[in-house]
Amino acid sequence: MSEASIAKASWLKNAGLQTLLSVLSADGEEARIAGGAVRNALLGETVTDIDIATTNLPEAVISRAQNAGFKTVPTGMEHGTITVIADGTPYEVTTLRADIETDGRHARVEFGRDWKRDAERRDFTINGMYAEADGQVVDLVGGLADLQSRTLRFIGEAEERIREDYLRILRFFRFFAWYGAGRPDAEGIKASARLKDGLDGLSAERVWSELRRLLSAPDPSRALLWMRQTGVLTRVLPESEKWGIDAVPGLIDAEGTEDWKPDPLLRLAAIVPPDGKRLAGLAKRLKLSNAEADKLQAWANAATPAAECSEAELARIAYRGKMGGIDDRMRLALASAQAKTDADTAARYRHLLDFLSSWEKPVMQLTGNDLLAAGLMPGKELGAILKSLESEWVESNFSLSRDALLKRAAELVAQN
After folding, report:
1. Are 261 and 251 in contact (CB under 8 A)?
2. Confidence class of residue 284 from pLDDT cuts 50, 70 and 90?
3. Is there a single domain that holds both residue 2 and residue 145?
4. Distance separating alpha carbons of residues 60 and 55, to the nearest angstrom
5. Taking the CB of the first residue and of the last residue of the chain, which one, N or C, has fewer CB atoms within 10 A?
6. Would you say 147 and 39 are in contact if contact means Cβ atoms under 8 Å apart?
């Protein structure tokens, strides 16, 4: 037991949660808040998911919860997990257990009543704490001291924890990015380097989920550095091997000075080459969403406007290209300029970004139907003339009127 408490956490006072903890703790059984909710509450950070550990077997969890008027969903019955929906809020309730057989991805579990054994099968000390219904923290693995010193450490033997689930290598760096300070735990680093081949057996969805969360951290720079030094980054993101991660610190600094929201895809772009073919392969391998793949392609296929580019020139570039890709290119260019203490170039890109943020793509007031109405016949000639007119309209900074375009169309027809 420890003297720490999360009693001040507002979510702990929720009536539905307190009722659920009470019914699961009756008649000699016990139930406690577990894992990330305890960690974040101790740090004063937002808690989104609340997990509960209990001595009750899954069938008893269902029975007790339903008798209290709560809905239950057997989301992971074989692993002892039941989702209980209390007053509209879902809670994952899991029976105390130990992993008795693993293959690096899946585990066969044995239910029990030993809180220390349950804590010791978890990944990191800061994730292995519990809290009673009154907020009293139960720390059986040294998580409080590690949380205070911002030390990310595996529970027990790092190599053993990783062999149970190789995803824990990526989780090690992800949690270090979010909660670690100084140097990562030496044993964790060594074990991650030795066992990185095990990452090859993980599903693409699990790998990308961890990478995206890592890249969403306030500052993932140090985590990426250690991933690179251990060979883990190259293992899961070979595109970064000869490109490097040097642009990331500058991007993080720019996010702070420019008040940009952290963008994991832009951070990913900072560590991979702007090669559309290779990025298409990356998107396919990691099973990125269509929106994520499109964002990377737009960035790869866009050219970075010169810092001396005028607003009119940028408008023409943006009309012909994809604004998102151009915006990402200029953000990275601004970040690079700031990192090189080139204040003048940074200021120019800042101005261009401000302009692009309020610019709306104009619509030419002339269509193929207008040309048909003017007597042109459908076909390649009409398409070519329309394309030529659009080009002239863009070069006029979108100023040519509909009448001027029709007049110019007649001239082009006469020339043909």
Report:
1. no
2. very high
3. yes
4. 10
5. C
6. yes
Per the structure, the complete domain to which residue 400 belongs is given by 368-415
Share of the chain above pLDDT 70, in %: 97
Per-residue pLDDT band for 103 (boundaries 50, 70, 90) equals low
**Three-state secondary structure along 252-317?**
HHHHHHHCCCCCHHHHHHCCCCCCHHHHHHHHHHHCCCHHHHHHHHHHHHCCCCCCCCCHHHHHHH
Distance, in Å, from the CA atom of 91 to the CA atom of 310, rounded to the nearest integer, reads 55
Q: Tell me which of 104, 119, 149 is where a domain ends.
A: 149
Query: Cβ atoms within 10 A of the Cβ of 242, count?
Result: 8
Amino acid at 369: N
Number of domains in the chain: 4
- How far is residue 204's CA from residue 209's CA, in Å, rounded to a whole number? 8
Q: Which residues contact 163 (CB under 8 A, 6 or more apart)?
A: 102, 104, 195, 198
pLDDT reported for residue 379: 84
- Asked whether residue 53 carries a pLDDT value surpassing 70, the answer given is yes
* Backbone region of residue 291 per phi and psi (left: phi > 0; alpha: psi in -120 to 50; beta: other values): alpha
The residue from 149, 166, 184 where one domain ends is 149
Q: Does the structure show a pLDDT above 60 at 64?
A: yes
CA distance 370 to 376: 9
Together in a domain, 37 and 76: yes
Same domain, yes or no, for 125 and 170?
A: no
CA dihedral 60, 65, 68, 73 (to 10 degrees): -140
Which tokens belong to 169?
A: 């290598």
User: Does one domain contain both 349 and 273?
Assistant: yes
8-state DSSP, 136: B
